[in-house]
Amino acid sequence: MSIIIFFIILSALIIVHELGHFLVAKKFGIRVDEFGLGYPPRAKKLFSWWGTDFTLNWLPFGGFVKIFGENPDSAEAEEVSSESFQSKNRGIQASVLAAGVFFNFLFAWLLISLGFMTGIPSPAGLSVPLENPRTIITLVVPGSPADLGGLKSGDAIGSLSRGNDVISATEDAQLSPQIVSEFISLSPEPITFSINRGETAKEVTVTPATDIIAERPAVGIAMETIGTVQLPPHQAFWHGLKTTWAFTVFTAKAIATLISQAFVGKADLGAVTGPVGIVGMVGDMKDLGWSYLVTFTALLSINLSIINLLPFPALDGGRLLFVGIETITRRPIPARFFNAVNAAGFALLIFLMILITIRDVRNIF
């Protein structure tokens, strides 16, 4: 089921992204010959609409739109036609290339707004009231006592016990992250966590360690008070926009930090995951509930939009960089150089995807 949900999410993100390219290209009178889900070879032509063939292809990870005259060395690019991508000015070309990224942002906004309308988990501190606030584990340090004991991100802590010493949430008082942290820090003895994981109640016993935080026992978790926020449509879209923008800024900073650390050999690539790892995360979100899955899909859409903006060959950002260079130099980039750089970039992306997938598979076993 997790694999099926993953492919549904992946297909939705790809369709939204490529739909952005497709609609903006058609808006400016550029011919689009094919809208493909997956990469060739082609498995089946689904239908034709607005002069474009919509196809299903055998390689499932990805999608594309074949825009007339997009590649500068193709025969169609040399054809004098008002429907060609190359015949349009640089502003229109940039708009077509950036449209996929913009549509992924819009999709994330729509999903988060829909979540606010139906009820979405949100942290304390927003300017809206929380319903049913609970202390939620937001991070489990890999290899920590919490990880080895079986605690997971998204678990809601109901009570903690150590011998006869018990603390729990009540209708009148919440079990705050501060109270939980203080309880754990009092003794290195085993602690039993009573948690709710989605609709399932569990008990997990964890023995705190003293080598995680200096001079006091800890189990290796981060926590936050999270409740449900449900808003009317007009407020949902406004708070959805603010939340989507906050997620976008946070994700952009995290990716920028990862890249900058990679240049000096200090990047933690353990935080990077591929399709196999995402399938596992989809399973966790599915167990926690529909609202978590919607939020996770929105975060994936934001990640896809930012990654595609990176000035790397074969990505939209790389193409935008070429358009910017051509605008400054007022001359086209040689077709041979353009294709060589894009082919090398695409090959590197495939190589990185294979490496990440191998690591994800090893982590499973």
Give the structure's gist in a few sentences.
This protein is 50% helix and 25% strand.
In helices, the fraction of residues equals 40-55%
What gross morphology would you assign?
elongated
CA radius of gyration is 24 Å
Number of strands: 11
Number of helices: 10
Number of domains: 2
Measured between the Cα atoms of the first and last residue, the distance is 20 Å
Give the overall average pLDDT: 86
Tell me what portion of residues adopts beta-strand conformation. 15-25%
Based on secondary structure, the structural category is alpha+beta
Which sequence of SSEs, written as H and E, runs from N to C? Answer: HEEHHEEHEEHEEEEEHHHHH
Largest sheet: 7 strands, antiparallel
Q: In terms of per-residue confidence, which ranges show pLDDT below 50 for 5 or more consecutive residues?
A: none
Tags for this entry?
seven-stranded antiparallel β-sheet; 365 residues; two-stranded antiparallel ribbon; single chain; Pdz3 Domain; alpha+beta
What does this 3D model show about the protein?
With 365 residues, the protein is an alpha+beta fold. Helices cover 50% and strands 25% of the residues. It folds into 2 domains: 182 residues, no CATH class; 99 residues, PDZ domain (Pdz3 Domain, Roll). Strands 3, 4, 5, 6, 7, 8 and 11 form a 7-stranded antiparallel beta sheet that branches. Strands 1-2 form a two-stranded antiparallel ribbon. A two-stranded antiparallel ribbon has the order 9-10. The protein is elongated and about 80 Å long. The mean pLDDT is 86.
Topology:
Layout: H1 2-27, E1 32-49, E2 52-67, H2 75-78, H3 90-118, E3 120-123, E4 131-140, H4 145-149, E5 156-162, E6 165-168, H5 177-185, E7 191-197, E8 200-206, E9 209-213, E10 216-218, E11 221-229, H6 233-263, H7 275-288, H8 290-309, H9 316-329, H10 335-364
Antiparallel strand pairs: 1-2, 3-11, 4-5, 4-11, 5-6, 5-7, 7-8, 9-10
Helix pairs in contact: 1-3, 1-7, 3-6, 3-8, 3-9, 6-8, 7-8
